[in-house]
Amino acid sequence: MQTKEKGMLIIGFVFSLIGIGFYVFEPNWIASPVGAGGAFIGAGVALILATLRNIQVRKKIGVVEDERVYRTAEKASHKALTFIIILEGVLMAGIGVTESNIQAQSVVSFLFAITMLTYVGFYYWYKKHM
Question: pLDDT tens digits for 105-124?
Answer without folding.
Answer: 777 778 888 888 898 899 88
